[in-house]
Amino acid sequence: MPSSATAAVDAQQPSPTPPPAAKNALDRYFRITERGSSVARELRGGLATFFAMAYIIVLNPIILGAGQDKFHHQLDNAQLVTATALMAGLSTILMGAIGNVPIACAAGLGINAVVSLQLAPKMSWPDAMGMVVLAGLVLMVLVASGLRQRVMDAIPGGLRRAIAIGIGLFISLIGLVDSGFVSRNPDAAHTTVPLGLGQGGQLHGWPVLVFIVGLALTYVLVVRKTSGAILIGIVAMTLAAIVINSLVKIPDAGWGLSVPSWPSKIVDTPDFGLIGKISLFGGFHEVGILTGCLFVFTVLLSGFFDAMGTIIGVGEEAGLTDEKGQLPNMGKILMMDGIAVAGGGLGSASANTCFVESTAGVGEGARTGLANLMTGGLFLLALVFTPLATVVPSQAATPALLVVGFLIMAANVKEIDWSDFTIAIPAFLTIISMPFTYSITNGIGIGILAFILLRVADKRAREIPWLLNVVGACFLVYFMLNPIEQWLGVK
Predict the structure, then answer these.
(1) In the 8-state DSSP scheme, what is residue 119?
(2) CB neighbours of 257 closer than 8 A, spacing ≥ 6?
(3) pTM given for the model
(4) C-alpha to C-alpha distance for 324 and 313, rounded to whole angstroms
(5) Residue ranges of region Disordered (predicted)?
(6) CA–CA distance from 11 to each of 15, 36, 317 (Å)?
(7) pLDDT tens digits, 287-345
(8) DSSP class of residue 199?
(9) Cα separation, 321 vs 329, whole angstroms
(10) Residue 343, CA distances (Å) to 59, 79, 174 in order
């Protein structure tokens, strides 16, 4: 298939060669032959993408299931597995059928941490998922009005990269804590060290060993460029955990979130109990209008730039972008991404977003949305295999968080201009603030405010887009909310 650069040169010729004739209606709709592909390659690519990202069926329920809402309620694991697979399948099929690109969608890592650890503890789960839906609706309005690209342009590229890296480090810390490799030191210890290795500075038990071996195995597979490395690591260590648990009879508490054992049945009726369980505006009643708007903004921003980067990156890998880096049907693609965000919240699976693992399918030859129909269909098929997903312990799945965290950092850290301190310092503060404050919101806000301050101090205020100043003003109020409320006598 010709590269995008070659395609651009060809487009300048006075008599361009007409594209090959479509073989049938399917070929004509998806432009399979025109893009130099075939039905077999599309189906093979869709299969590769599914195996590369199927780990999300296990990982998303673990992240969401680890959180508690304001009323100390936790979401049911089996219902989360169903919601994750269902919304991933539907949003992926929709992206393929409407956007005609081989870019699959599922619950976004990082965004689910925002929902679980920031939104839910301050409201009910339906309230938190309602805010995800609102973020998706706002995203669709931004796309329809053309503002999405303008907001994208308002955030400096280095700061966008830093946001992605900060999210990567944040989910890596979550992985270390959920696996038991790192734990919080009790306040009674009167130590200045907030976190420590294992329990009391030492690693204990088989579960942590499963995590360590799983992390090493997955990194080895990544280095060897093994397709589906993350899923292979999860499956292998789940089987190892089941064997270990059956032989050494580890107490239930040893595995944390899940006790691995052979499922009594492989196939079961999916539990759709979480679908549609949302309260669209209830969260504003719990946290107030300003904080609620900032929460919606955080969910919106968390997936906003990652999705844009993924869409362009996968498009370039597939040779679908033009000389300006634009994909065909970009408006439809962005709208489908907004629908995926809202749909994920509606299904209580957190916001769905575009997955960079789609490059696995592109590597197998996928060039059209037909590949998504295969990937999405497999996600829907996974609905009846819920018992298999619910036996995966956190120690077998959390290595994926550290692998994804590394991949995010590797793809973004070199793109930051560290020689320009007005970018480097805000980027640094963004990166460290997310894991250190256990908050993506804080990291984004601190980074934006630092950027505005340093550009003004460097007499470069005119370089700050007005939209970014508006966003900065919102975050300034967010950080000063408590003294403002005291001053106004609200609390």
Answers:
(1) I
(2) 62, 65, 66, 178, 393, 394
(3) 0.72
(4) 13
(5) 1-23
(6) 9, 17, 20
(7) 888 788 888 887 887 777 667 767 877 887 788 877 765 778 888 999 999 999 999 99
(8) B
(9) 11
(10) 19, 16, 25
